[in-house]
Amino acid sequence: MSAQYTPIPLDYQARPLEEMQARADAFYELMRTRRSVRAFSDRPVPRRLIERAIQTAGTAPSGAHRQPWRFVAVSDPALKHRIRVAAEAEERASYAHRMSDEWRAALAPLGTDWHKPFLEVAPWLVVCFAERYERAADGRTIKNYYVQESCGIACGLFIAAVHHMGLVTLTHTPSPMRFLNELLGRPANEHPYILFPVGYPADGATVPALERKPLEAIADWHEAPPDEAGAAGG
Q: Could you tell me the CA-to-CA distances from 94 to 60, 70, 115 in Å, in that order?
């Protein structure tokens, strides 16, 4: 059945420029404290918080509004253990002979290795699967569009939601990740995209002393001439 575009009014609230600036500054100040954490507490996290983070991820734009993501959340200790064992096997092989010397050198400042205890300690593991195509009820294959881009945006919103609520997470991508399809019973049309441990940081948790690039190193501008900009601003 073909979808039909039905316009509805945009839910938009205009705000004074001063309020917009204040909101932008506050959100930046919050997000600049976000860090990838590898030392988790086993303190329980209510499922409703994970639900909200996933729902927030689901607000992301996607190619043709296909919403090609599936988030699978795991709190079962036995299943988390199996995921850790499988992930560490892949990571051990990667560090031993899959990674180039250049790659290992790039990872050195992060202090990482193949050991991934956080996969058992964190109260929740949330896996985003990218749905390359959809299977209709009648067996037809329905193509999805811009799957990688769509899932990347959704995962970014998930990370922001987790940080905003006061929890921490990590983007973990053991390679290959197909073991997650088997362990989590996911179909062949879904590809593991990112595995997120989610929870509270461990007491005394530390992170690498890294600096983010300043604005001038990540942005370029092509602005209107001052007279045109002034006219546009009214």
A: 32, 26, 12
